[in-house]
Amino acid sequence: MVNVRTTKLGIIGAGAVGTSLAYAALIRGAADQIGIYDLNPARAEAQVLDLAHGTPFAHRTRVAGGGDLDVIAASDVVVITAGASQQPGQTRLDLVTTNAEIIRALMPQLIKRAPEAVYIIVTNPVDVLTEVAADVAGLRRGQVIGSGTTLDSSRLRWLVAERAGVAPRDVHALILGEHGDSAFPLWSNATIGGSPIQDWVDETGAKIFDDDALADLANQAVLSAYSIIAGKGATNYAVGLACVRLVEAILRDEHMVTPVSTVLRDYEGVDGIALSVPCVLGAGGVQRVLRVAMDPGEHDAFQRSGEAMRAVLEEIGQL
Fold it and tell me: Does the keyword Oxidoreductase apply (predicted)?
């Protein structure tokens, strides 16, 4: 008899983001098992039951959950979405003190149950909490990452595609740095179908992406979460889809290149700070941190993002 290895995804938090991730993973068949933990057992159990009822129409995924952390034991990937949520008018950094304490208390308990797992931090402020989690965990480099600007980059790609009238998958554009207000687009490397974005013109030959257009797109991509939160209280569907792609890349060893938050070592002058840069993601987490060319303005923006994160880390005693 051949033993077939099964994959397991652990999710911490049965709120809007955690359950959107579970739903996306169920539909896409990302993992063979999904374990969902929440401080509120009744909520976790109800979410699991609701998801399980849909399994006849999806992939053969076993879903379990409740208020016992053992439900995530032996997970291959653990995604942490638990924490105080961002309220209308509140910045991601306003959440830092409360959520840093949650991460510090939670990580040792998770590692005890899933020591080989790759940990993906989604809770905001994600870069600060990635740094906190990596420090507490003491795991090898690349095993603790943050979802970072994967979603921000997806938002940017969609916005560019809408303006250019092309499919989002044909837009290659990244947002780097903090997952927050100091994030910035890497316009110097952005392309549509292999052509530099700033070369695109309309039918009359006029540039589609002039400086004003690029500034507007960047602003929309970075700040769009605030309008979503103001309208419905949370962002959850897109981040759920973005995170399930990270999970798939790890479980399937895809060697996918995407910007995730990881503690950097002498990257464009930033050292010991978690920020998003392009990384190769596969089995074991971040397999390689990629160096990317930046023009002087982008380099300065990256420095500012690092300084903003360093200030917060010093404030909470992390540095």
Answer: yes
